[in-house]
Amino acid sequence: MIVIHDYKPTWPQEFEVIRASLLKVLGASALRIDHIGSTSVPGLGAKDVIDIQITVPALRPEIRQSLIEAGYDVTPHVMLGFHVQYGIIVDKTGDTACPSGVSCSDRDIELGIEGQYHFAPSRPLDAWLGLGLGYELERETLTVAGQSQDYSLEGPQYLKLQGGADFRVSGVMTVGPFLSFSLAEYTKATNNGQSSDIPSAALHEWLTLGVKGTFKIGG
């Protein structure tokens, strides 16, 4: 859904702030920086998005790189970044079930890089798909009769597929639900501080449903 806002007198000031930032990044490479689109027309209602046109002699690689390093998107549909995920593991059964009389606390932490494609980045509701990889750490604490024992498994995450929807709460922050499938392998085990390699490591999968927040830095 496209939302048309009444004209905001602050739009020209917002443009000037962005223009000053772009001039600092591009310097003499920017021949012109113009406020275009509906928000540039006084009194006209528009989407609350400042459209800007930059005129350069040629779109050289160093100009693209300068904009990327300053936090500007090459295309708003594609996002590259880091992801951190924390999950609580529940409902273990069979050989992995918590023993009777023992309190178990199990959590999973993931760190990695990810690329996402956003279908409607300028709209209040934006559906997206993601692909990434990283490193996974599962930690479990067993407590019995007041005594605790820590155990952990860790290893590379070879594949992470995600999909979800982002609700925009500000110009730099979105929040929304997601569903992910990951394929990883535990290669190292630690028991009360003593670590060892796992000789016969096997692949495992996770199916995760959750809520995520995204922060855009520098744009």
The largest sheet is: 8 strands, antiparallel
Distance between the termini: 24 Å
Low-confidence stretches: none
Class derived from helix and strand content: mainly beta
Proportion of residues in β-strands? over 45%
Number of domains: 2
What is the CATH level 1 assignment of the largest domain?
Mainly Beta
Average pLDDT figure:
86
- Global morphology: elongated
Q: Which topology of the largest domain does CATH recognise? A: Porin
Figure out the total of helices.
2
**Can you tell me the CATH architecture of the largest domain?**
Beta Barrel
Q: Count the strands?
A: 10
Radius of gyration: 24 Å
Helix content: 10-25%
* Order of helix and strand elements from N to C terminus: HEEHEEEEEEEE
Set out the fold topology.
Elements: H1 11-26, E1 32-36, E2 51-55, H2 61-69, E3 78-88, E4 103-118, E5 125-144, E6 147-168, E7 173-185, E8 188-191, E9 194-197, E10 203-215
Antiparallel strand pairs: 1-2, 3-4, 4-5, 5-6, 6-7, 6-8, 7-10, 8-9
Protein model, in words:
The strands form 2 sheets. Strands 3, 4, 5, 6, 7, 8, 9 and 10 form an 8-stranded antiparallel β-sheet that branches. A two-stranded antiparallel ribbon has the order 1-2. The two termini are about 25 Å apart. The chain has helices at about 10-25, 60-70, and strands spanning about 30-35, 50-55, 80-90, 105-120, 125-145, 145-170, 175-185, 190, 195, 205-215. A hairpin with a 2-residue loop joins β8 and β9. It folds into 2 domains: about 10-70, no CATH class; about 80-215, Porin (Beta Barrel). It has about 220 residues and is mostly beta strands.
